[in-house]
Specification:
- With about 240 residues, the chain is an alpha/beta fold.
- The protein folds into 2 domains: about 150 residues, 3-Layer(aba) Sandwich (Alpha/beta knot); about 70 residues, Orthogonal Bundle (Trp Operon Repressor, Chain A).
- It contains 7 helices and 10 strands.
- The strands form 3 sheets. It has a 5-stranded parallel beta sheet with strand order 2-1-6-5-8, with helices on both faces.
- Bound molecules: 6-chloroguanine.
- It is found in: Cytoplasm.
- GO terms for molecular function: tRNA (guanine(37)-N1)-methyltransferase activity.
- Homodimer.
Length: about 240
């Protein structure tokens, strides 16, 4: 059985979008995964198929109705073991470990909101996780869903080339990656770090490790602290 992405959205035309191209697109054509958008609109109420209403308690914006989301969920008939995820800036931050968990399972059902949000009751009652892709506001959950799917699909068996097999990438060991260089050895008067031309693989590995640590410390003090704490813990265990 292939990995199955179902997307509940008011903009089904946005899927698979860019994921129909490149690595993800090839995997889609080969049947490694599927992407099935499901329009929320037909589940709306009245002549206008309204999916949203004004918030109880007042305030700006509109809220997607619980009954509309529930009807869409029922229509797509995803098995109980498929994670249901609402894409929202109010969600917990998406991490590589979450991506790995999704990729290892049978697929995901992604709910994309527009407007102010979705009635909280359906999120709780139907066991829908809430996930954010970062601390900025998007106009809707669709582009966030594309990000989540991209991150998952590249982990599916056979999708990534063996030369980029994920063992050496950022976050797998908690550090950002070291910088990369290729020919020409001198470009516009700028040299490549000498050690990389030395053929000394031990020295190259040590240089890359140092660079990874340096860059992580500068750019991501949060990751650096976590990495330091983990190293301390490992050293204590080893001792
Ligand atoms: Cl998951 N959705 C929306 N609409 N905005 C976001 C987001 C998600 N993550 C960050 N901003």
């Amino acid at each position: 059985m292939s990995w199955q992405a179902t997307v509940l959205t008011l903009f089904p035309e946005m899927f698979p979008g860019p994921l129909g191209l490149s690595l993800a697109g090839r995997a889609l054509n080969e049947g490694t995964w599927s992407c099935t958008p499901h329009d929320l609109r037909p589940h709306g109420l009245g002549r206008h198929r309204a999916v949203d209403d004004t918030p109880f308690g007042g305030g700006a914006g509109m809220v997607i109705r619980a009954d509309v989301v529930d009807a869409a969920l029922s229509a797509v008939q995803a098995p109980a073991d498929v994670p249901r995820v609402f894409m929202t800036p109010r969600g917990r931050p998406l991490r590589q470990r979450d991506v790995s968990r999704y990729a290892e399972g049978p697929g995901v059902v992604l709910l994309c909101g527009r407007f102010e949000g979705v009635d909280e009751r359906v999120l709780q009652a139907r066991n829908i996780e809430q996930v954010s892709i970062g601390d900025y506001v998007l106009s809707g959950g669709e582009t966030a869903a594309l990000v989540l799917l991209d991150a998952c699909v590249r982990l599916l068996p056979g999708v990534m080339g063996s030369d980029e097999s994920g063992v050496e990438e950022s976050f797998s060991d908690g550090l950002l990656e070291y910088p990369h260089y290729t020919r020409p050895a001198v470009w516009d008067g700028h040299d490549v770090p000498e050690v990389l031309l030395s053929g000394n693989h031990g020295a190259i590995a040590a240089w890359r490790q140092k660079q990874a640590e340096e860059i992580t410390r500068e750019r991501r003090p949060d990751l650096w602290s976590a990495w330091l704490a983990r190293r301390e813990e490992n050293e204590a265990t080893a001792a």
